[in-house]
Amino acid sequence: MPFPTSTLTGPRLTAAALAACAAGTAAAEPERYEIDPAHFSIGFSIEHVGYADVLGMFLEGEGSFVYDEATRELSEGRVEIAADSVFTNHEERDGHVRGDDFLTAEDHPEIVFVAREYTPRGADGGELEGDLTLHGETHPVTLDVTINKSAEYPFGHGQHTLGVSASTRIERSRWGMDYGVANGMVGDTVELDFEFEAIRQ
What we know:
Layout: H1 15-26, E1 31-48, E2 52-58, E3 61-68, E4 73-82, E5 86-87, H2 91-98, E6 110-121, E7 125-134, E8 137-152, E9 160-171, E10 186-200
Antiparallel strand pairs: 1-2, 1-3, 1-10, 2-5, 3-4, 4-6, 6-7, 7-8, 8-9, 9-10
């Protein structure tokens, strides 16, 4: 409904007009966001015999979520990652990680994260709780999330886009992957990092 003409004339908006503007802003609707596969980086690191961390990536992933930027409420979210897309810059090691000692990618081809609850912390981030299905088992995880930017994209598609960084750490043995843990050959703790741009639909 348009404001009455009298409230918009003169040097100031009336208190009623200001209240109406504020109410309109608060009424923003949740929107669906699709993660741009061209700007989706899924990284991990894990200790190797105490000498150094092995750095790796998963090269194929997709996801979407429903988020209200005004209220900072997340009502839905899901990410799927192809287990056999693991890459550590060493072909033999990649084959080992895909196999039965680790991901068993042939039997469990998808790594899936389903969001349950997002709790804002500070001005630009929060904690995201959800369930991670890995190696055929599902357990809860919590990610630290930072929203880096929210704006219209300056080139290309030109759509409203969120830039997000998220990270967590898991103990892989909890998901039944305990190869090399007992003898200290491969660390149990895996650091997971996600960087992505999500386009509002």
